[in-house]
Amino acid sequence: MIGHLNLILRLVIWFLLTANLSVANIIIGIAVALLLPGRPKTPEALKDWLRVLGEVIVAIPQAYREAFEIIFRPHSHEDVTMERVKAGRTPGLIFLDIFLITFTPKTIVLKYHEDGWYEVHWVRRRKKA
């Protein structure tokens, strides 16, 4: 069986995708969340989930700030970097990490490597020499 936090994450994604909170849609969402394949239940620290959700809340104003920066001061330099996945991440937390990186306009995860790395594309301003 999947963990409670993973079930909640699946339901949140379902409701965001469907934008429908009717009783029938809630029942379908619960069924889909339970039927989706997943890894066996893994111990997850509630503090890890709360920290990541706090980072998501902080990322919203950051995304707006970066969008205005790109509009008013165009960024023409691109980089691709490899970033290490934090130790002990469950699939749900890895998903939220990828969401956080991709949510802001200046970064996007190109690929998740199973050996514990994210390939991240950055848009940056060139530093004047």
UniProtKB/TrEMBL annotation:
<dbReference type="GO" id="GO:0008324">
    <property type="term" value="F:monoatomic cation transmembrane transporter activity"/>
</dbReference>
<dbReference type="GO" id="GO:0016020">
    <property type="term" value="C:membrane"/>
</dbReference>
<keyword id="KW-0472">Membrane</keyword>
<dbReference type="Pfam" id="PF01899">
    <property type="entry name" value="MNHE"/>
</dbReference>
<keyword id="KW-0812">Transmembrane</keyword>
<dbReference type="InterPro" id="IPR002758">
    <property type="entry name" value="Cation_antiport_E"/>
</dbReference>
<feature type="transmembrane region" description="Helical">
    <location>
        <begin position="12"/>
        <end position="36"/>
    </location>
</feature>
<protein>
    <submittedName>
        <fullName>Na+/H+ antiporter subunit E</fullName>
    </submittedName>
</protein>
<keyword id="KW-1133">Transmembrane helix</keyword>
